[in-house]
Amino acid sequence: MSQCPYSPNPEWHNAQLNFKDAMSYGDYLDLGRILSAQHPLSTDHNELLFIIQHQTSELWMKLMLHELKSAREHVKRNELPPAFKMLARVSRIFDQLVHAWTVLATMTPTEYAAIRPSLGQSSGFQSFQYREIEFILGNKSAALLQPHAHRPELLAELEQALATPSLYDEAIRLLAHAGLPVDAQRLNLVASGPTVQDDSVQAAWTTVYRHPEQYWDLYQLAEKFIDLEDSFRQWRFRHVTTVERIIGFKQGSGGTEGVGYLRKMLDTELFPELWQLRTTL
Hints:
Number of domains: 2
CATH architecture of the largest domain: Up-down Bundle
Helix content: 55-70%
Structural class: mainly alpha
Distance between the termini: 80 Å
Number of strands: 0
CATH topology of the largest domain: Methane Monooxygenase Hydroxylase, Chain G, domain 1
Mean pLDDT: 92
Low-confidence stretches: none
């Protein structure tokens, strides 16, 4: 009797070949749903690239949120070593997303114009997960809740993110916990807008940088923040360059200025005191 084709075979290093009663790779990853989630609305060959580029970005953002929320909890409890690992992972995810733009950049203006009508008013500007990432990192805006008002469950989650101290807020509280003077108003602030530079916070971080051996964990935390924002800035820059390469200075599909809007976002600082102290240190 010949060997069953689905039985372990020495030719394939005894790899399991029969999954009738076992979980396979595709089962574990739910690939049936993932690989059937692409629904081009045009007949153009290039639309699949556009869809997969943005779907994979959203998957990476899901992991970023998972890491950032956990890192914030660890910082809140003054458990910094696990937070270091999580923040380093988020930085590497941004690096991954930087390289992903090079794939989308293979789309020419002519190719994009062919699929543009299929996008309607949809835009990455409306990404719920991206907005939550920015809120956790301290770049908040109550006005940007509006694109999600039609989805009550998403709106509620973003409202909670807006009202929750940012990752950087929790780090500033650690500065005070370490005995460094921070203005009480800034210490208790949970802003609904972007992080604003505070002199007392900058003075506290400057002390950390002048005495790293005394404040070693805080010093490392500050550098993890700088690493993260460095990677975030590179992602933003690659984003605006790719958009300009494909659509020039046309209005974005979501109604923004497109490249003009994205260039303004390049000036946003998530951790302003950590950047400014480098000039005065």
